Every structure is written in C-alpha cells, then in structure tokens.
C-alpha cells in the first residue's frame, strides 16, 4: 500500500538501510545493566540513541563527509536474559565473534560498561597486538567489586587480561580507589582528568596499530551528559569529545563501543544526542 | 542473518505483523498540533504510544480476549507539511477515504483534536446515519477560534456540519464558553462532567447504529492523564474510562480516533500507557 | 558532644530506636532489581522510604494508634552482590530464616517482586498452612520469563510451589498473559481489577489463619503511585489501599513485604510516602 | 499604540479588569513560606495561579454562571520582608483590615497556611459569630511547633483562639499528632479523611451563618495536587473538591483563602489549574 | 489603593516603564512555532523570558551600564492565528514596518526562527546595505523543507534573498545537509562550530555598517541552553556568548531577534535566564 | 545482631566514623533558607550532599590523598526554628564558637548564604587578621534588602563589618546592583566573572594568612550546578572550580562553608555531587 511504507526503517540508527552482508560495520545494542551499583537504566540506551538519531543529519560538517554512501548495518538489540550475567556475556561474545568472522567491524552500544569485556576478548583474539583506548571518568580497574570478578567496576581489569601490558590507554580518569591508580602506574597508560591534550600526544604512537575504542559517556562532564549512571563532575565538554572523535579517522579502528548512556536521567535528551553524534563520526571514520 | 531480525517490528503498535490487505482495522498516526493555543506537543504521541505498547500484553483480562488472532495493520505516521493546516487536513482526508474504500475501519492516533474533522467527513459520507461519540473535557463547539474556522477548539462544530442534528453525543464535558453550551442544548446530546453513568444510559439507544468514537484523552483527569495539552482537573479516573471502553464491543464502530496525548508532559508515561490500553480494547472490539 | 547527636537515627524508618532483641517485627531493605525487564530502579526504594518517613507522624488517625510504644527494629539494607541473582536470593532467605528463628515477624522492603519468593519459602516452612495475600496489578504467575525460572514475572508461580493449592489470594490483577489466568482459575483465588470489595469478601475466611501479605505498589493506579517499574493504568486509589491496609489488624500476619517502589520515577515522592504510610499501618497491625 | 496594549492585564487573575472601588471581593497574594519545615516553595503560588488562569474560561458549567459580570479585583502580591514572620503577619493583618473596612470580601492566596491566622483575626472581629471551615489533610492544631507559637502547624490552634468554641469545622483530616486529635474532640468539629459526605451533612447547620473558608490544597490527594509542600496520600479527588466548592454559593462567605500550592513540585501544573478553578467557583459564589 | 499597585508592571521585561513614543527600541514577542518539525514549545518563550527577567538586575557588570536610564518599550506579544503561517508572517512584517517607520529599533523575541524573515525583509528595505549576523547551530539555508518554502529550516535562505550576496555572516554552525554548506561557500560567510574567535575576526569589517543580529539560542551548547527545540551538542558556553554579546555595543545595530528558546524543555530555567541576560546586554548596546 | 549494623553510618558524610573529640574539622549542616527571595530549597542540601557522598571514593586523584586517615567529624544538622532568623543565627554562632573553642576547624554546609555571617563573626574573633575568600556569582554587598539588614543579599556586607578593610577577596562576581560594585571598589578585592585566573594571581599574597573560605555554588555556571536558588548563567566550569579547590591545601584555612546548593532544582544530582567533591578536597586540605 503506497504512502504507508515509512515505518519500517524508523527503529534503525540514522535510517540505515544496508543489509548485513554488504556492511563494513555492524551496530549491536546490548540492553544490560545488572551489575550496576548506583543507578541502573542504561538498558534503554540503544533504543533511545536510535530514536534521537532520527533528527540527526547524515552529513557531518566536522569531517565534511556523509553517511549516505557508507555501508553499515544496524542489527538491533540482543535478546538477553535479565539478571543472568553469565549467559548475557556469552551471548555478547558469540555475537562479536560472528561479526569478526564475517570480516566486519563490531560496534556495540551499551548498556553498562561490562559489555566491553566479551567484545574485546574476541577482538583481541583476532588482533593480538590490539591496543585499547578507554575514555572514561572511572578507572574501572578493580580486581573485584562486592566480591564479584565481573562488574562494571572491574571491566578494564578484565580487559587488561586479554591484551598486552601497557596496551590500555586511559583518558579523562578522575575517580577510583587507590589500588586502581597503583595498578595503572605499572600496567596501563593512564591520563588524569584531561582528554584532548593527552589524546593528541598519543595519537602518533597509535597510528597504524589495530585499536579498539571504548567510550564511557561519563568521561564527558555531567553538564553535557547528565544521562549516565555514575555522573562525575569535572569532565570534558561535548565540544572537546567531538574534536577528539573527529580524529578517529586517523586511526585503524577494529572495534568500538559506547556505554553507560542512561536515558532515564536524560530529560533533555542531550546525552543521547551526543552519543548519536559520536556514533555518526565513528561510522564515518571506519566505513 | 539469524538472531538479528528483531528490530523490524519494533516501531509498530503491539508488534502488529499483519499486512494491509488482510486487515480489518488500519491504524494511522497523525503528528499534527499546529492550531493548538496552549501547549503543543501531541505530534509525538503516535510514536510514543507505539513505543510503550511494547510492554503491553496481547491478552486483555478486561475482555478475556487477545490481539494475537486479530487482523489490524499499523500503517505508521502520515507525512504532513508542518505548519500547513490545509494541506495536512487534505492528506488525512484522502487517507481516510482510501481506508474506507478498501472496506476497512480507520483508527487514527493524534495529534490534536482537529484531525477528527477530515476523518469524520469521509466516514459520514459512507454512513449518512452516523452517530458520533465524543469523550472530552472540552465542548470544542465554537464556530471560530482566533478568527479561524479550523481549530482544535472548533472541531466538533465542524463535525456537527457533517452529521445529522442531535447525532453527536458528548461525555465528560466540563469546560467551554457560554455559546458552546447554548449550541449544545439545541444540536447535541451533551453530558456534563460524568462519563460512565451517561454513557451506560445512552448505550441502548446507540446499539446497532454505525458510530464513530473520538476520545480526547483529557476527558480523563490530569492525575491519570497528565500528558495532554489543556489539562482540566475534575475528570474521570483511568479505571472508569477503561470500564467504558470495555463496553465498546457492544457497539457497531465504523471509525475511531484517540487524540491530544502529549508525551512531553507525560514524564511517567502513564498517559501513553493508558492510551495504548484504550487502543488495545478498541481493536479487540472492532476486529 | 551535646546538641550534635541527631544524625544517628536519621537513616531509620520512622526513627525506630528499639534494638533487635526486644523487637517484634524486623524491617529489612533489599536493594535488588536485576531481573526487571522494563524500568529498573527499585533498588533505591528502601532508603527513600526511610527518608520520607521522617515527615510522617507516629500517630495514625486511621487506626487511632501510635508507633511510639511499638517494638520494631529497622535492620537496614542487605549487602547483595549486584547482578548475582542466586547469591542474592540466598542472602535474603538466610536473613528471613534468622528472623523467624528468633520468633520475630519479617518485614521486607523491595526491591523487585522476586524477593518475595525466598521470604515466603522460609515463612511457609514455619507455617505449613500459610495463606498468601497478593495485592498486585500483574498476575506474576508465568512459569518462565525469557527462559528464566526466577524472575519478577514468575515470582508468584514459585510462591505457589511453597504453599498449598488455592492458598494464594490475588487482588487487583489487571495484566498478564492468557496462561497465567488459566493457571489462576485452577490454583489460586484471583480477583480482577477490584481490590477493596473482594478483600472484604474474603476477610472472614482469612481471619485466624497465618497469612503472609505481599503488596506490589503497582496495584495502586499510577496516578497515585507513579514511582514503579511497570505502571498499569486502571488501579485503585491511595485512599482505597489505605482502607484495606487498615483492616490488616484483623488478620494474623506472620510476614509482610512491600515491593516495586521505584524512586527514580517518583518525582513528587508520593509513591514513597504512600509506601511509608502503608508500612506504618502494617507495623501498627502486627506490633 | 494600537494592537500593543495586551500586556497590561496579563498578570491578573482571569484578566480581572475591575477597579478596587467597585469590587465586591479583593484577591491578595501572599508569597510567604518561611515557617515551613519540609518543602518550601509556596511563595511562587499566587503568580503561578494567575498565570495558568489565563487558559481558564470565564464561564463555569459547574454553576452555569460567568465571571464576566462579576466585580472582583486582583490587587497583586503583598510586599513582605523575606524571613521576617512578625512583620509579614502584621502586613497581612493590616491589609485584611483595610479590605474589610471597605466592606469587601478578602480572598487571600498563599503562601503557607500560617497566613490564615492574621486574616481570620480581622474577619472574626467583624463577625463575632464567625464559623471557620477548614479543608485540609493536616489538623494544624498543635500549640507550638519547634517551640514556635506561629507556624503552619499551629495555625488552626491560633485560629481557634479568635473564634468561639466548636466554631471550627475540619474536613479531610488524615494526619497529626495524638494531642491534636484530643484537642479536636473537645474544641472543634473534626471529620476524618472524608470530605464531601461530612460537608453535605454539615451544610444545613452552616447555612446563613457568616463563614470563613480556608482550603489547604493538600486536602486533595497528591495524585490530583502533587504541587504542595507536605503531600499526604489518601485524600479526595479533584472532582470531589469541585463538587464541594460548587455548593459554596449556598453559604454566606465573608472571607476565603487557598493555601499551600507549591508550583515547584507541580510539573504538570495541574495543582495550580485546580486552584484556579476553585478560585473561579469561589468568586462566582461570593460576587 | 496604596500598596496594591505592584502588579501592573509584572508582565514586562525588566519592568520597562517607558511609553512607546519616547522609546528607542521596541520589544515584541511572537508566540509562533508551527513549522517546527521536532519539538514545538517556543511559543511560550516571550512570556517566560519576561517572567525570569524579574530576578535580573538593571545593572550589568559586563558593560558597567544600567538599563535604568535606557528608553525601551516592551509592547507585549503579538496576537497571531495559531496554525496560520501566512497570516502570522504578515502580522509580524506589518509590526516591524510600523516600528521602523517610527524610527525605532525592532527587537523580536521568538518563537521559532522563521520569524526572522518578515522582520529582516522590512529592515533590509530601510537599510539596503544591511549585513545580517546569525548565531546558530544550524545553517537554516535549505531552499525547501518538506516541500515548504517558509520553514524554520529555510529561513536564512529566504533572508539571503532580501540582502546582498555575502552579507550574511554565520557563526557556530555545526549541522545541516550537504547542500547548505555548498550554498554557504558561495553566498555567505559561514564559520563552523566556533563563535567568539570568528566573530572577533570579523568585528572590524562589520563596524559602522548597519547590522541585523539574529541569535538562535541553540548556538549555545545544550548544557547551557537545554531549553530549545533542536539541541545540538558541541556548542559554545554561556560565558562565551555573553562575551560576544558584550561586544555588540561596538556595532551599529538596527534590528535584533532572539529565537528558539523553549521553556517546556528548560526545567532549571537557565535557558530563559541566559536569554534575558543577552537581551539586557543588547538593550544596553542599542539604547 | 551481625550483618545488620550497616545503617548507623549511612547518614554521615563519606561515612565519617571519627568521634568529635579526636577530630580536626567538624562538619555542621544548617537547613536554613528563610530570607531567600527567589527560590527557597537549600535547607535540604546538607542531607542530600551526605546522601550522594555515599557514591564518592575516599581517594582523590586530584590531590593523590585519601580521607581514610583524616580526622573529621560529621555532627549532623542543627535544630533551628523555621522562620525565626534571629534565633537561628544565634544557634549557628554558638555552635561555631564551641567548635573554635575546642580548637577545631568549623565546616558549615548551607542552607542559604546568610549562615556565613555568624560563623565568620566567631572565626574573626579568634583570628583578627582573617582574610575571607568568597567564590560567588553575586556580590552580596547590599546594606539592606527589602529593608532587612540580615539577608542572603547583604551577608558579605555584614562580613565586611567583622574583618579589616580590603580583607575580603571576591571571585567570579557577575551580578549585583551598582552600589555594590561601588562599595567593592573601595572596600574589597573584587574579581569579575573569572575565577581561576584571579585566584592564582592572589594565591601568593594569601599564603600563610589565616583564611576563611565561603563558596556559593552559584559561582559555577548553572549548566554544571543547576541546583541553586538564583542561577546566573556565565559562570565557571566544574573542572575549573575543582582545579581551584585543589590549590586550597596551599592555604592556611581556619574555617569554611559551602552554601546555596538546592536539591529541589537538581534533578540529575550533579550539583550535590560537585558539592560533595569540593567538600572532600577541602577536608583533604585541612585535615
């Protein structure tokens, strides 16, 4: 019936129409937030980010490039059993493996930060020299949290177990327990508080290397990204993070995730809008 | 690609999968709110009602019946030119005509109340003896509003020009200018403030007749439906409106609309949830 | 230091000062909401209900009685591992067992509805003839939910496995899948939509029996209790639930819980205030 | 300059144009909320109620009467020194005296409930047989509050000192300390929880008498009136209070106030809208 | 009546008391937002900006100058027919013409951005060499939007048709379709993302020229100005825009507008407060 | 009873466990906001700041130091008579005197800014050469406000009467009446708008001197600190204020307060979180 076919694409990020086979990057949403201690709610993020992307232009003046000709596929949200951490991580890992096996770049939208672990696990298998870039207010380097090994607060410690020493680069970190900073001194490149400066300083060293990027939206100050579970005042501006993201095209990105957006704390929707813009720049960088 | 096919149906009301051809009722969203004087925002309603319907069960304990086997089709939102009232009404009218010509029941989700006019215009052509049931806090019977003939405040006056005298039944009315109530005395069946009582009294008289039902969500008290443009304290409860809607299956409904839900004023989403429940009962009644 | 000793009691429900040993009822908060599918956030409820109880009077005009002379103890919140359902239920169960062993009445504040299961499990051991009264918008009688046996949507099915057939009394139910209603017909006393009427009808039959009461706050309409995870329009008023709760003193209550209050969706705090009032009446009834 | 003269009347309640001299009733706003213990914010009420009255019709279907021909004057807000209770009460009292001396009916909009005291003090001088009707969730009958004699929690006790014994009629009361209820037994007509029933029962007894009416908006349930400082679940509906207010025309009202509306807690504005409707009915009753 | 005369000036911006005849600048509010596609609501802006201006000081430390001695007149809001774009633009244009004919500077408060078009049309007639400065996140240079020539998304294209080539200066632009940027290359001075730097670079070139300034509040980052219809993360700070506005006194401003403030999305009111401050600086610059 | 002892410390800032006797700094909350003219609500701040501190780490990467070994004591909130300014200030002053007499550093959490006056009064007695550092958007230097000498708008004028001329250093000031700026020229060191730059310039001059620091949270831009009574756009970022606060350890701080946080306007809680972080850095600096 003519005139009535609009609805079919509404649910997809920036109206992606490509099919899976031809795509270069594959977007997967993960509505998981069970291990969060403070304010859950990130499970609604993938849907919300897609919804607000409806108002975003395909064209980016930041990179003078348009998503129109790019080949990416939005695969929708994973079906995960609420409250079952083990099974959920398994499903994420299996999905990442499948995308990698098909020669595509996995792009995961959280959900909580823990989802980074199963993805990096698979990406690191494919790229043993993988370097991981973490943009985050929190170190996330504890060994355990409330006695649990798998938590949003331990995720980057687990990630460190998948990659080589000193292959984790951390930017914007401004919260953690003493032990995390001691660990970081020896095993990671940690940059405190600042984001753009340290990133540009490391850019040359990173060029060419296969890199995985994980952005915890709380790296940005809660003024710009109030919609997150553990807001941490003192972060960078939205303008600054967009300047950093615009440089991603100079990197060899083999995987990416964007986590901890929490629509329930985002009345103005500006956090989801910022996430959608970051995602657009990222897709322009890798496709 | 297996496991990734979930997203396609997300945008539809209660995951309707039927195709247009086999359907008995056709849902159409109309994102229009230009003539509103107080608080615009109802244009976001069709999408929001679909979104919250995701959490609604197919089965209704109110009518012990399930939408699973019902044939309805969600055609999505109409593309209307923002700010152009004339063209927008034309598009709505044409759409209603098409659905009626195909022998189906039109179900419109507003948007503002003015959308009722072009739909009833077409339905009344098909059913000259049509009776219209209006559930509303406001009479909407002015002849003009700010000198305009076509407005959310004049819509039922226009509707009266399409149907026979005294064929409009109004329930829950509790606001208007003196002239509207004078007009109503002569030309409509107006019931003040109360909803369920007067409806049940009229039920017998209405049975068998082709009826068109228009529900302005503000007939319900703003405690239960805060998400609306011109909230009017002193309305019925959500329990009461659901009891009334459960009786709709005793009527011969040939068209229906639900208008004035405004998601921007509905932080708790309970207005959209109530609208989705009303819509479910309605579809159970007509399919 | 004089004048500075106020703070110590701030965190407790209605400034309870009694110690554990002398208490008749013991309040325990459970900040758990991992299995929730729609809107998590109930983990913040125990703290919030205590906080708003600060503005509540000890004296109740509903029962002309005061909490001043009652012996109850607020034990604070349980330490549970976020995301670990199994371990969390174990901790709850162990706590309930301890309270029962000490001859006291367990009063649990959720958190999600699943917490009812481990508590009833222990209470039913103590009282094999136990009858359970459930006030809820949802049947919660599924056998599995997303393949999981332990979920907020299956909790009352699990509870049924702990008590005798037809020993579950359900009030206010207005949502569920077909199978739940079929199950209920055979195995429970289910009362649809209405609360006060059916409760009063059953009151005589229940008198004397050991009863456990679980109140899911969503039994109340979202107009009165917007702060909940799965709001279901069409419920009872706050006045009605308070009238019902005032009758609890005629019952032989051996355990109680109040679940699914979600402060994050409760901007006006009226849901937490209602919960605190219910809790006050309950404590007056059992102490 | 033609076409530009609209603004002058915007700030007034329902566009009152009358001058003071010809008016029968005089509206005065009192932006005072200093003695409030829980949530201040009622000082913004008079302005807000005027603002939302802009969307209210002059005509009332409740009483089939219109404000168009009524003589009332909106005198604006009093200038009071923030934080200075004594001086503020003095200013209120002087204003009430002036209005009464001019043979007009004082209509005060709070602000906190304490403002009732200085007004009744003057009205009772004029009408020694004055009966006071209080619609309120709280008894407000303490002798002191935090050692202060003048407080929102003691106001009706002070009022009792201005009028004869048993000349205070209280409706909807559902909170207070034990002592208040003991006092009420001897010195007032207190009706618990219910509003409309008790009011109708007392109506005959009150007819003819000079009466002063004070409505604390929290008599209405927080579902209908969330915008108030000490919300108390279990109150009446907005429909019920409007039915009661519609009967006020049968009384001989010589003074009136409406207090404790708090716009800051009234996101949907429905509390202010209800207040404006109550005020309209009241003005229709006395003018 | 003494002490009661406060209200008359409440509705005006910063209590402007001057009459029209003596004024140098005339403020006009335009409650229009019909052509907006995403989030309407800007129609409430003029009233809200006036309301919050009540808390603003007359004196500005930014320019060490006070509005006390300045001659400006707040003419209130235009009466426009909701939903009728053509008639509304006509009314705006006629008003601008009248103000210009009287030798005064028009200062319009939106409403949506489309209102700039009829104003500039008249100003450009008076000043054929007019240069227009646009501070905006969006280029607004489309030729048509949803087939409409007159829309908030095409307004600066229409403006370009009223002034000479390359006489439009754009600052802060960070969103648009490819075609707009191509158009800008040839016909406007477009500055991407940054605001203060490019403005200062152009300041000398602009000095002396008659200039019209249009500020779309979304040029500021949504962290500082969340109350707008199409928030675009990555903008300037409120401090930066105030620094720019403080330089306006060096220009020969012959007309001005401030658009797209949307109070409904501005819970903290900081967007309206920023708008009021900008307006104060502007009036200080031109009076 | 083991496992149930968690609650006792919940109400304290960052779980302070120290007793008063051994402490070096003593935190006192003052729930006072009676003299506020615009938006009251700061009385809830002390409790809220303690509540959110629960999610804050003891360790600070800003100063590479941890609160674990520091000796500070949270004494809770003062009991003050709501609405009685005189008595309240007396209580505050007496408390400050007691803390100083015991050789400890007073740390007050407001409440409104007026509370600074009684504290400084006592501190200045102890340290006649005291210099006061004020971080604030408003000068607060009026002599009277609405005829009152004691007000949040006159507080720093009163403070000036307690210390030597030119011993008040003001940073970030961007609002006030002309007279305040004239006064400042002669009697204080006032720095307009900027915060970090001027502070660093004055740092050397201040080193060694006994200093009292008062931070009005509105010195920070409302984007970062929306939860305040009189938001003033154009302030510094949260990152900037934290950088400044990190330098406090270079000063000889003998007293401190943090005022004007208003939880009711702080939906995202980021203002309270920022306040808690500032407080942590301050305690690290003085203990």
Automatic annotation (TrEMBL), chains A, B, C, D, E, F:
Protein name: Agmatinase
GO biological process: putrescine biosynthetic process from arginine, via agmatine
Keyword Transcription assigned: no
Any one GO molecular function term: metal ion binding
SUPFAM superfamilies membership: Arginase/deacetylase
Domain of life: Bacteria
Keyword Transmembrane listed: no
Family indicated by similarity: Belongs to the arginase family. Agmatinase subfamily.
Cofactor(s) named in the record: Mn(2+)
Organism expressing this protein natively: Thermosediminibacter litoriperuensis
PROSITE patterns: ARGINASE_1, ARGINASE_2
Cofactor note: Binds 2 manganese ions per subunit.
């Amino acid at each position: 019936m003519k005139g009535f076919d609009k609805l079919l694409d509404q649910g997809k990020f920036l109206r992606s129409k490509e099919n899976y086979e031809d795509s270069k990057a594959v977007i997967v949403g993960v509505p998981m937030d069970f291990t969060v201690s403070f304010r859950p709610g990130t499970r609604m993020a993938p849907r919300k980010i897609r919804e607000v992307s409806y108002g975003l232009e395909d064209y980016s003046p930041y990179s003078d490039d348009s998503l129109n000709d790019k080949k990416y596929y939005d695969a929708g949200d994973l079906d995960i059993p609420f409250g079952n951490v083990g099974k959920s991580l398994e499903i994420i890992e299996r999905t990442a493996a499948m995308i990698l096996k098909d020669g595509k770049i996995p792009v995961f939208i959280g959900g909580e930060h823990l989802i980074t672990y199963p993805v990096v696990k698979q990406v690191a298998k494919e790229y043993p020299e993988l370097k991981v870039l973490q943009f985050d207010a929190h170190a996330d380097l504890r060994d355990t949290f409330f006695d649990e090994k798998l938590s949003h607060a331990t995720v980057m410690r687990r990630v460190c177990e998948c990659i080589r020493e000193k292959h984790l680069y951390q930017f914007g970190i401004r919260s953690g327990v003493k032990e995390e900073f001691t660990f970081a001194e020896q095993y990671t490149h940690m940059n405190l508080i600042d984001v753009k400066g340290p990133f540009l300083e490391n850019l040359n060293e990173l060029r060419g290397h296969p890199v995985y990027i994980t952005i915890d939206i709380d790296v940005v100050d809660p003024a710009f990204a109030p919609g997150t579970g553990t807001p941490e005042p003192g972060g960078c501006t939205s303008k600054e993070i967009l300047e950093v993201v615009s440089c991603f095209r100079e990197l060899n990105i083999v995987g990416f995730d964007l986590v901890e957006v929490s629509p329930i704390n985002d009345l103005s929707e500006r956090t989801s809008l910022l996430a959608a813009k970051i995602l657009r720049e990222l897709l322009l960088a890798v496709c």
